[in-house]
Amino acid sequence: MTWFMLGAGLILLITGAELLVKGASRLAISFGIPALVVGLTVVAFGTSAPEMAVSVKAAFSGQAELAIANVVGSNIFNILFILGLAAVIMPLIVSQQLIRQDVPIMIAISVMALWMIQDGMIGKLEATILFAGVVLYTVFLFYQGKKTGIDNSEVDEKPAPTWLNVMLIIIGLALLVLGARWLVQSAVTIASSFGVSEAVIGLTIIAAGTSLPEVMTSIVATIKGERDIAIGNVVGSNIFNILAVLGLSGLFSPTPLLASEQLMQIDVPVMLGVAILCLPLFFLGGILNRFEGLLFLMLYVAYVWFTIAMALSLPYLPQLQTWLLYGLAPVVVFYVFLCLINDLLRRRYR
User: Fold this and answer.
1) pLDDT in tens, 229-252
2) Contacts 24+ apart (CB under 8 A), 118-124
3) How many CA within 13 A on the CB side of residue 336?
4) Is pLDDT above 60 for 202?
5) Is residue 200 part of a domain?
6) CATH code where residue 184 lies
7) What is the pLDDT at residue 166?
């Protein structure tokens, strides 16, 4: 039965992602809104429903630290794993709006989140500010998208009734959430039966499980050529996670949301670092290529490896930390530097 739930959950995720992308794309066309804006709002917010459910429930139940940890872990997973995997499947063309506006917004609110948790908590006032931010951001995006409109030459989808598009989105979201729930529950049961510790399960399966809707939605969008939705979904989800999920969790929580020393000193800075990494790589040529996708995946594996090693106090943790700090990190910085030099030379000789 557990293996059946695992397969059924995966099927529900794929089907739900297909319906969601189709409904969102058609809805964008019918309202004259660019697909990128729908990816940043409707699709991104909808696929973040598992994170919202987990964080709000955790906050309401008094597990105040889990709410922040869930958001931070999901944001790191979204950028490094989802964008990395999508770019490996097909190089991602990055919209100028993302480079000039939405990625800088994602970086700015990541900085704000890091600043807010410096005292080890997020209180009611900070939660209110965060939630007000997502309302303003959403209104601004829809106003901007409606004002900009879309080029009719880009429209490939046939017109469909609005009610049908909305129905596809609702059904797709429902299947995504249900599929993610079944997949996570069955995966935890199977992992436990093989003797895998609860710490490892929590740091891997559960953390990635709430982001499974974003995984399937971005991959399906990439394969279908809706690459604006693929990238917009990730950036929008990260913005939504910090502003809406943390904001609403903080408002529901009977006590302030708590941040451990590890969150303050390691995980949130990593979340900010990978957000900053997006800007130069997106800016250079406006493409996230396959090599950079592999680089993102390698960084995620390194992060998970370090997190598990630290949680289990593995004996080689100091050596691993040294390798990451003085080996992997300089390689990434050097690659970005070379790309910047190459881009400057290309612009100069052009």
Assistant:
1) 778 888 888 999 999 989 998 998
2) 118/264, 120/258, 120/259, 120/260, 120/264, 121/64, 121/256, 121/257, 121/258, 121/259, 122/68, 122/246, 122/250, 122/256, 122/257, 122/259, 123/250, 123/256, 124/250, 124/251, 124/256
3) 16
4) no
5) yes
6) 1.20.1420.30
7) 86
What is the per-residue DSSP string for 225-243? Answer: T-HHHHHHHHHHHHHHIII
Show Cβ contacts of residue 91 under 8 Å, excluding neighbours closer than 6 positions. Answer: 287, 288, 289, 290, 293
228 located within any domain: yes
> Do 249 and 124 form a contact (C-beta atoms < 8 A)?
no
Flag whether 327 is in a domain.
no
| pLDDT at residue 247 in the model | 92
Q: Is the pTM of this model over 0.90?
A: no
Domain of 176 in residue numbering reads as 2-314
Structurally, how many domains does the chain consist of?
Answer: 1
Q: End-to-end CA distance of the chain: give it in Å, rounded.
A: 62
| Three-state secondary structure call for residue 274 | helix
Domain presence at residue 97: yes
Q: What is the pLDDT of residue 253?
A: 85
Distance CA 254, CA 124 (A): 9
| Residue 97 or residue 159, greater confidence | 97
- The mean pLDDT of 248-273, rounded to a whole number, is 88
Taking the C-alpha atoms of residue 257 and residue 249, their distance in angstroms, rounded to an integer, is 8
